[in-house]
């Protein structure tokens, strides 16, 4: 029987996003999973292999817990404690020193065999655990922290160049994002692409596509309220479609209400009644919502590979996506969906018109191609197996 490794899957928050929670549960079928970070709310895991060593969200509770952990580490590994205290001195603000200390103490107390950072940006705060404490380090590239963080915050470009050479292995959600990250170091020989697995229950609801008889076109986008989601271009396209006489209803799931900029745009274009906003849904609720739409639109300016596109393909919903990040690895134009340029409202408009004009048999074939592609390449069990192989390689 192989030895169980202690894998710290770190996102900073407990619980994490749905796709990281899937990774946690999948890895726990094979190894022990340690969770560190701020515990935002109570969560119960069914697997005994998942152990939570959280930093309390309450300031005063955190002070008490951190004091206890300092004593514990002092008696267990005094040298490690003194090295950690030296490290936190690099923080200029006293409170920042405390925060860094409180978040790193549990990691050193329950020293994992591998620390897997889910967000590349976190290497700035936790990279020293590799360089000073020799904890093997894996870093994931998921989109934003490689695509635009180093542009918006140039200091991270320097951090990546300094610390990427120390990383044992990299995981990318697409080939495109690994290639982009390689500008900071020669990482290709230490990198593996593992697509984010799509939950099995999305595939269970798949039905052969049937084109609706009505004239109304129901378009849906899913994502948080952020400039990179490109909603302004989708709204421009919606306006032009309505000018041309198309009856289109646009639903945005994720943003509970429009930003000030989007609201002003909607007023100017007189499309308020054609657009609705729904707050974030659970995965089961999202599944049901997608089944009442005609086409999913991803108008983004930056993604790794958008999970919602994979989920739409799994349930049998046609997709239109911008050619951002790694989306071209999934959306093959007019084979598995429509791929359009970024920041191009006219291209989005044309794709929706083309979708509306496409015969049912062609749509049925396209949706089937997409479903089979996602089923093959984004299989949960196969992708978890690849992560286990990655961890075993790092330890060896």
From TrEMBL:
Pfam families: Glycos_transf_1
InterPro entries: Glyco_trans_1, Glycosyltransferase_grp1
Ranges for domain Glycosyl transferase family: 214-371
CDD domains assigned: GT4_PimA-like
UniProt xrefs under PANTHER family: SULFOQUINOVOSYL TRANSFERASE SQD2 (PTHR45947), TEICHURONIC ACID BIOSYNTHESIS GLYCOSYLTRANSFERASE TUAC-RELATED (PTHR45947:SF15)
Protein known as: Glycosyl transferase family 1 domain-containing protein
């Amino acid at each position: 029987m192989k030895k169980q490794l202690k894998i710290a899957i770190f996102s900073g928050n407990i619980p994490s996003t749905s796709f990281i929670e899937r990774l946690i549960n999948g890895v726990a079928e094979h190894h022990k999973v340690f969770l560190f970070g701020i515990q935002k709310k109570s969560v119960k895991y069914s697997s005994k292999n998942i152990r939570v060593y959280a930093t309390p969200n309450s300031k005063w509770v955190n002070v008490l817990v951190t004091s206890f952990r300092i004593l514990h580490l002092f008696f267990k590994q005094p040298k490690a404690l003194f090295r950690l205290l030296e490290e936190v001195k690099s923080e200029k603000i006293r409170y920042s020193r405390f925060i860094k200390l409180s978040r790193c103490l549990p990691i050193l107390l329950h020293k994992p065999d591998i620390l897997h950072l889910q967000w590349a940006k976190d290497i700035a705060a936790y990279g020293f655990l590799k360089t000073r404490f020799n904890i093997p380090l894996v870093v994931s590239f998921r989109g934003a922290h490689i695509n635009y963080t180093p542009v918006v915050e140039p200091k991270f470009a320097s951090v990546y160049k300094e610390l990427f050479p120390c990383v044992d292995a990299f995981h990318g959600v697409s080939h495109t994002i690994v290639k982009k990250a390689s500008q900071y170091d020669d990482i290709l020989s230490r990198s593996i692409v593992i697509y984010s697995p799509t939950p099995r229950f999305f595939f269970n609801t798949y039905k052969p596509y049937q084109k609706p008889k009505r004239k109304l076109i129901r378009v849906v986008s899913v994502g948080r309220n952020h400039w990179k989601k490109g909603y302004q271009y989708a709204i421009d396209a919606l306006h032009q479609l309505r000018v041309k006489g198309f009856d289109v209803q646009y639903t945005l799931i994720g943003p509970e209400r429009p930003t000030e900029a989007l609201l002003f745009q909607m007023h100017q274009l007189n499309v308020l009644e054609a657009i609705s906003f729904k707050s974030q849904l659970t995965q089961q609720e999202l599944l049901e919502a997608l089944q009442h739409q005609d086409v999913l639109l991803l108008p983004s300016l930056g993604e790794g590979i958008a999970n919602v596109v994979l989920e739409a393909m799994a349930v049998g919903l046609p997709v239109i996506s911008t050619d951002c990040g790694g989306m071209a690895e999934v959306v093959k134009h007019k084979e598995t969906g429509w791929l359009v340029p970024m920041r191009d409202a006219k291209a989005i408009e044309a794709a929706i018109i083309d979708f509306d004009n496409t015969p049912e048999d062609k749509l049925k074939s396209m949706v089937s191609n997409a479903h089979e592609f996602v089923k093959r390449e984004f299989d949960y069990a196969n992708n978890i197996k690849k992560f286990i192989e990655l961890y075993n390689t790092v330890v060896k």
